[in-house]
Amino acid sequence: MIHEKTYNALEIETKHGAVIVEGPILSEQIADLVFHEDLIAFRAPAQQHKAIIEIAKLPEGRIIIVRDQQTIVGYCTFLYPDPLERWSKGKMEDLIELGAIEVIPKFRGTGVGKTLLRVSMMDDAMEDYITITTEYYWHWDLKGTGLNVWEYRKVMEKMMQAGGLEYFATDDPEISSHPANCLMAKIGSRVNNKSIQQFDQLRFMNRFMY
């Protein structure tokens, strides 16, 4: 499968000034930018900066960023699912995962998260993919936002819906372990029926286990 990546960008006004939401961007460009010290949801900022540089080098890897001048203040990543996850078991070339999305606290609630998803889906090549995201409440900043799990999930759902992702049922044990966890996905308009059936089988792998 040819992994085409077409750059798109939107400038949006926030109460903290204008920011650029852009991507997919090249690993060299990411390396040249400052990675904000408040981007700490997944690992230490320096490590996460290095991680997204590496993802951008992958044939299927896509990084969309929120840029305030020369500083990355938000980002999302798209890549093939982790080899240890069930979503990689079908070895599907047209299934890609929204692996991480993060915005610094200062810019939360300004619409930049939704814009990250919109810019991601502006690339026509995304119509060739099933795009999935797995939402786990233990990754959410409940303390920092003051929201409970259900309020936070509603925020996450609205943000994902901006990119056309919607709720899909699954029997995945980790997702099923808490009712706030969920699988969301967008099936691109050019994805064939065979891939859709394969995705359905991955969603319900425990169906015939007794």
The CATH topology, please? Answer: Aminopeptidase
Query: In angstroms, what is the radius of gyration?
Result: 17 Å
Largest sheet: 9 strands, mixed
| Integer count of domains | 1
- The fourth-level CATH homologous superfamily is Gcn5-related N-acetyltransferase (GNAT)
Tally the helices: what do you get? 7
| Number of E-type strands | 9
Domain N-acetyltransferase: 23-189
Keywords: Transferase
Organism: Psychrobacillus soli
GO molecular function: acetoin dehydrogenase (NAD+) activity; acyltransferase activity, transferring groups other than amino-acyl groups
Notes on the structure:
Pfam families: Acetyltransf_1. One of its GO terms (molecular function) is acetoin dehydrogenase (NAD+) activity. Residues 23-189 form the N-acetyltransferase domain. Keywords: Transferase. This is GNAT family N-acetyltransferase. This protein has 210 residues and is an alpha+beta fold. The protein has one domain (8-203): Aminopeptidase (3-Layer(aba) Sandwich). The protein has seven helices and nine strands, in the order E-E-H-E-H-E-E-E-H-E-H-H-E-H-E-H. The protein has helices spanning 27-32, 45-57, 112-122, 142-145, 149-161, 173-176, 193-203, and strands at 8-14, 17-23, 34-35, 62-68, 71-79, 95-103, 130-135, 166-168, 182-187. Strands 1, 2, 3, 4, 5, 6, 7, 8 and 9 form a nine-stranded mixed β-sheet that branches. A hairpin with a 2-residue loop joins strand 1 and strand 2. The model has no long low-confidence stretch (mean pLDDT 94).
